[in-house]
Design brief:
It is a single chain. 43% of the residues lie in helices and 22% in strands. Strands 18, 19, 20, 21, 22, 23 and 24 form a seven-stranded antiparallel β-sheet that branches. A six-stranded antiparallel β-sheet has the order 8-7-6-11-10-9, sandwiched between helices. The chain has 737 residues and is of the alpha+beta class.
Length: 737
């Protein structure tokens, strides 16, 4: 063609513009690469009608110095790709012959273009097939690696290690989502972190806001999202990767295990149109494979865990049925629970029902066994929590219901135990036996949300078993104690029948009492209603027998006298001062912490008082101690009365024998002096007292007689100190027989 200019233009996707792709001849008009509006131009006719076109003029469009135009379509079938344009500075330079020739030329050209495109498609298909084959091979290898993974973290690590080998990715990461905090966290392999840190002066922030992100959308819609033109994206995370790493295309796929969202897989490419439907299918396959692996692993772990829990429950039941000593049972069970349920800590609290440990009955739950060094330290420190308090243990006991904190940080009343700083989840399970709560089981984990409904059910069942075992152990211990007490009482009864010596019976009473309760501070007095006199028979202070300053005294305003006058026992387990004030009695010296005294009764007659006391601890004596001491006092009263009657019988017999002997000797002589000497001597020997006979007439104030020498007085030193509730002090005139 004899033309001045030729151009090739390509039509835009919206069919509104033509781009100058090639230019030859006079460089006038539109330059190379220029975008030419399509509307109302000869090319619009060529493209719309897909034919060669010679406009009668330039349709009012001047292209530089060109006066004539000949245009034809570049097309593959009916798909017009662009135009070939010939231009001349001459008017009417082109005719129908030129049009036919151009049409033939374009036919050849279009055929060549179509052949080239077919070749490229075939070549691309071959490359795609090879790429797909490689990706599938890598995916199969990843699947094999998944089979050996034992945790979610291992599965995620394998994905990060292999993702860029399966999908074309310049950057890739896994993100976990925290909807509560409104953030997501970027997880990368160590190699990625090192590479990004060395490539960028700005550090990669792993935690980002979740709002307006592609990962949030992928998670909510549960599907893969592909974003092109990342620099202008509406998603903040996509723009971040575009600005920081030059990423042009991002693909995000959610990873679910069952119905649980684990996170989102993300890949990024610096190519503008990097990802296709095939890439979308591959990343979805990776997510599905990983989710199934994690779900199966979780199921297997749950089965293993449940099996371990059942084994632990069986072992706890076996131990509970074979060990009846609570001091041995509780630590053993706690270690079994901790190991069997893979816990951070386990402990058993029991209510101090009698106040023996805390001094306040039923107010405190005391730690009786705890796992590990922390448990040993807390037990040694006497760790306790108030029943009914806001603590986990206090609430569980008072409400008889389990209290569970899957995240202790959400508990307003959580007690930050310095012995257990890593607790993240905690349960307090009531120990209920025969309808009564006896304590609580403390269960703690280092992991938030550590306890599943199955864990809670298994542990509560075990807590119920443990409560019954504890109660059985208590009953067994009480039975053993009762049996031992009965043995002591029976032994005491036999001992009392074998002795008729009052002092020996008093000493035996003290010794037998000490075998059943604390009798380090003990005293016994005997009472004569006829003379209204108290006789101090035995006084023991801190385990040592003390001699009281007076052996016989009249009644005073003390505790002993109150018991005698009212014929009632007195039990003061705690707060002795208030009890003493309420009784209206007086004491001197140190007030005991715990005190118990009972009358010695023969029928309705009081013959004495037995008392025990403790100056260091409260709640040493209780109602059971009272029952025991009453049993002791009853037997002692009978035994001492029998011994006293036996002594009186022996005394009368001895007196009768002396009288018979004196009568015989008197009748054997007629000498008055001999008769008097014999009578004085026999009476003095029999009574152990000095005796004399004084003879006088009615008119004489003094007469002669015979006298025996009195026995020497016994040595006596009073004790250095005596407790207020101790032996009876003289309150008025004392008398000696």
């Amino acid at each position: 063609f004899n033309v001045d200019q030729s151009t090739i233009t390509l039509v835009s996707e919206d069919f509104k513009h033509l781009a100058v792709a090639a230019l030859a001849g006079t460089e006038t008009g539109y330059p190379l690469g220029a975008a030419i509006p399509l509307e109302n131009t000869p090319n619009e006719v060529v493209i719309r009608e897909n034919r060669v076109y010679i406009p009668s003029d330039s349709m009012g469009l001047e292209i530089g110095e060109m006066k004539s135009i000949l245009s034809g379509p570049i097309a593959i079938g009916n798909n017009v790709l662009g135009t070939l344009n010939l231009a001349s500075t001459m008017v009417n330079a082109f005719n129908d012959r030129d049009a036919n020739f151009l049409n033939q030329l374009l036919s050849l050209m279009n055929a060549s273009v179509e052949n080239r495109r077919l070749f490229e498609q075939i070549e691309s298909a071959l490359l795609t097939t090879e790429e797909q084959a490689r990706s599938l091979a890598e995916l199969n290898r990843l699947s094999e690696q998944f089979s050996s993974a034992t945790s979610v973290d291992e599965v995620i690590a394998l994905i990060l290690e292999n993702l860029n080998k399966i999908i074309n990715a310049d950057e890739w990461a896994f993100t976990t989502i925290d909807e509560k905090d409104g953030t997501y966290e970027i997880v990368m392999s160590p190699e990625q972190v090192e590479r990004l840190s060395s490539d960028s002066e700005q550090p990669i922030t792993t935690t980002q806001p979740l709002a307006n992100t592609i990962v949030s959308r992928a998670a909510k819609e549960r599907r893969t999202i592909i974003e092109f033109s990342c620099k202008d994206s509406a998603y903040t995370d996509v723009r971040f990767w575009a600005e920081q790493r030059g990423i042009q295309t991002v693909m995000s796929a959610p990873l679910f295990a069952g119905s649980t969202l684990l996170g989102v897989l993300n890949t990024g490419s610096k190519d503008l149109s990097a990802y296709t439907v095939q890439d979308e299918n591959i990343i979805q396959s990776i997510a599905s494979l990983a989710g199934s692996t994690i779900d199966n692993r979780r199921l297997f772990t749950q089965i293993q865990k449940r099996s371990q829990q059942l084994e632990t429950s069986a072992e706890v039941s076996r131990v509970a049925s074979t060990i009846l000593d609570p001091t041995e049972l509780l630590p053993r069970v706690i270690e079994l629970i901790k190991e069997g349920f893979d816990l951070y800590y386990a402990g058993i609290f029991l209510i101090d029902e009698t106040g023996e440990i805390t001094g306040e009955p039923n107010k405190w739950a005391v730690l009786r066994a705890g796992s590990g060094d922390a448990g040993d330290q807390m037990v040694a420190a006497g760790h306790k929590l108030e029943v009914g308090s806001e603590s986990m243990i206090g609430t569980a006991i008072s409400n008889a219901q389990a209290r569970i904190a899957l995240n202790v940080g959400d508990e307003a009343s959580f007690f930050a135990n310095p012995y257990l700083p890593n607790t993240r989840s905690e349960m307090a399970l009531p120990l209920t036996s025969r309808g009564a709560v006896v304590g609580a089981l403390s269960i703690q984990s280092e992991i938030a949300d550590a306890f599943s409904p199955e864990d809670i059910t298994a542990l509560q069942t075990m807590a119920d078993q443990l409560a019954n075992a504890i109660e059985n152990a208590r009953l067994f211990e009480q039975t053993e104690i009762r049996a031992e007490e009965l043995t002591v009482l029976n032994e005491m009864a036999r001992g009392f029948t074998q002795s008729m010596d009052v002092d020996e019976l008093v000493k035996n009473t003290f010794e037998f009492t000490g075998r059943m309760m604390d009798a380090a501070n003990f005293y016994m007095v005997l009472y004569s209603a006829e003379d209204d006199i108290l006789e101090n028979k035995l006084f023991v202070q801190a385990g040592q027998i003390i001699t009281p300053p007076q052996s016989r005294v009249k009644l005073g305003p003390g505790l002993t006298e109150w018991i005698i006058q009212n014929k009632l026992p007195v039990l003061m387990p705690t707060d002795a001062e208030s009890h003493i004030e309420a009784l209206g009695v007086e004491i001197t010296g140190e007030v005991p912490k715990s005190w118990l005294g009972v009358p010695m009764l023969l029928g309705n007659e009081v013959t004495g008082v037995i008392a025990v006391q403790n100056f260091q601890n409260e709640n040493v004596y209780n109602n059971h101690s009272l029952d025991l001491l009453i049993a002791v006092s009853s037997q002692a009263a009978v035994a001492i009365d029998n011994a006293q009657r036996f002594g009186e019988t022996q005394t009368r017999a001895r007196h009768e024998e002396i009288l018979r002997r004196v009568t015989t000797q008197v009748h054997a002589t007629t000498d008055p002096d001999a008769i008097l000497r014999t009578a004085v001597r026999e009476v003095s020997d029999a009574l152990g007292k000095p005796a004399f006979v004084k003879l006088s007439s009615a008119d004489q104030a003094v007469g002669s007689g015979f006298e025996t020498s009195p026995p020497p007085a016994p040595d006596f030193e009073p004790p250095s100190q005596q407790p207020a509730a101790g032996p009876i002090e003289p309150s008025g005139d004392s008398e000696e027989r």
